[in-house]
Structure formats: structure tokens, C-alpha cells
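Practice problem: F-box domain-containing protein
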Amino acid sequence: MVQYCKFTCVDHQLHINLSNSFLYKYNSSDFNTIYPQQHKIFSKKEIEMELIPFLPEEIGLECLTRLPYTTHRVASRVCHRWRDLLESREFYNQRKQSGFTRKLACLVQSLPVQPDPKIHKPITPSSFGITVFDPNNQSWVRLSPIPKYPSGLPLFSQLCSVDGKLIVMGGWNPVSWDPVKDVFIYDFTTQQWRQGKDMPSKRSFFAAAALDGRVFIAGGHDENKNALKSAWTYDVRRDEWSELTQMSEERDECEGVVIGNEFCVVSGYGTEEQGKFRKCAEFYDMEKNEWRKADGVWIEGKCPRGCVGVNSDDGKLICLAELDSEVRVGTCGVKLGDLSLVTGSAYQGITQGFYTLNMNDRQNSKLKKIEMENDFSGFVQSGCCVEV
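Answer key — C-alpha cells:
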């Protein structure tokens, strides 16, 4: 058993410090050479035979399992075997089961704009990007743009997460404002985007959530503003879409959450009921491929977008906008284990505040404000949790 295992990156090298006094240095410019403390050079064949020279296979695997996700891109360049291992779903599951993953909040957030010095106003409308918050070290970073949309995300995109990957779906083209069917997947190991199979049809303001390696979408409205009751599931690993049984009612501007082993579509309204948000929800049972309706689970007339929480004790829905007057407008919440990130403002027209909240102790817990840098203080449209 390795009692001590520390990883650092120094001068483009990955350093692995073990309790048995070995220091391994993996140079990103010469990935087939490993130097332990004795400065012995190993051949490529020796490297490929063992995960870490001089260590049993299971201990080498344990060491790599402890690698922080931020080092995976560098570590995957050490050799082909490390790359194949670190990019595999089995390795992700091993890290998750061992408790070495982290839960991050990925947010669709407006990007900073440069004002025109003559008129002191933004020269372009707001564009959006993906901001990542790590509650472990209170750090904020922004993901690289999607290559197809270098100037900003499709507006009102939906986010989900499967196997430590971020899924971005739908939205409006940021230039033409036309709805799109695009699906993009971000891999935190390679730090790269790839394009998935398009959604079967264009839809906006739909419910989305992930369960058991699949993404579920339902409701929203089509290109002609007609509310929808259709639903689909996307298998990320197979890159395939499959149609589900339709809901009992049309649900535009609904919200999707997972409760237990069911996909829940909260509130929404029909085509002829613009803005009249219902107090009911529908739950999809994967085994039976059918929906069941539950009445009185939401606040009638309240838009659920981004502000639906789930009580961990009884599984009932919570309106995050009702938790505190400081976040009652433009509310968005992302559950990160025991902790939740909540954004919002006290009233329309002022800058959003950013807060953390312990949802498992709601009676005694209060919103804890996070002091934000200007680069990451923009409006948050939506978000999801990604465990990496």
C-alpha cells in the first residue's frame, strides 16, 4: 500500500513523489523516458511493460488513480499505455469508486465585454461561455470555446454530464438566433471538444438531465413556438438517440432533474397557455418506458428554469428562489454533493450574487457569499454538476 503519493507539475514535467523515496519525473517533451532518483534511463519497452517501473501493477494503478484531474492531460502524454488508461471509462469508474473524483459546477455564463471608450457601453451583445467552479479550492476557470462557435455558445444551451464528460445541447445560433440541433462533448482528460450526433429535431427551452450513462430530454418548443410533449434519450457512449414515450402534456420552459432512478420534468406550459406554469410534474420510469404525473409538486405560476432543487431527505422538489431573498431573481443552482452553488439577485437589474449552501442542513445553513473576480461575475443562465 502506498501511504504517501504526491503529484506536482514542474517545468512541463509530471513529478510523482512516493513514500518509498522514489521520485519519478515524466517529461512532456520526451514522453518515453522516465527518470527515478537514481537517474537511470528506462527503455520504451520497459515502460510499456509496467505502469510505473519498480512498482507492482496494482500499486502503479493506485498511484495513477490519485492523479488530480488537472494533470490528466499531461499524464496521458507519458506513454500510450497511460493515455489509453486515463482516457478509459473503466479508469474513471475506478477513480469514482475510490473517492478520488471531484464535483465541479459547469455554468453557462455571460462573458466579459470590452466597452467602447467613446460611449462607455459594450460594443457587442453579451456572448456566453462555459465557466467551471471547483468548490474544493474555490477556483474559477473558463473552458476553451467550442470550435464551431468560437465567439460564444449557442444561446440557451442545455448542459448535462455523463461519465465525467460535459454535454452541451441545442440552443440558438449566437449570430442568427436560429435554433440548432448541435451536440458537443467536452472531455476533461484531453481538454478537447468533439461533436456528437445531432438532436433528432430543433427544440428550445427543454428539460434535460442525465441518468445511468444516458441523457434525457423532453418538452420545450419547436421552431414555430409550439410546445412539445415528445421525449428522447441520448446514449453518449454509442452516440445514438432513441425516442421515448410521449408525456401526457405539452411542457414548454420546463426543467429536468433526476430523483432516484427517474427522470423528472417539472412544470412548463402548453402552446395556448403562455407563461402559465403548472404545479405538476411528470416522472419517466426507464424500466416501464412510461410516464406518471404528479400534481401539486411545484409552485403554480413560477418558472422552474434553473431553480429546481431536490430535498435529499424526502426527494421532494425545492424552489431555490424561495430559499433567500438575495437569490429570488434569475436563480440558478447546481448541487455539488452536500454543497450547492446558488446564483441570483434580490431584484431585477442588479448584478448576480454567488453563494454556497449546505442543502443537507437547510434549517441551520445560510447562504455563504463568494467574492467574485470581474471575469467570472457575469450572468449565469444555467449549469450542471460534472464529476471528474
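Discussion: Residues 1-5, 9-13, 18-42 have pLDDT under 50 and may be disordered. Students who identified this feature from the C-alpha cells alone can consider the problem solved.
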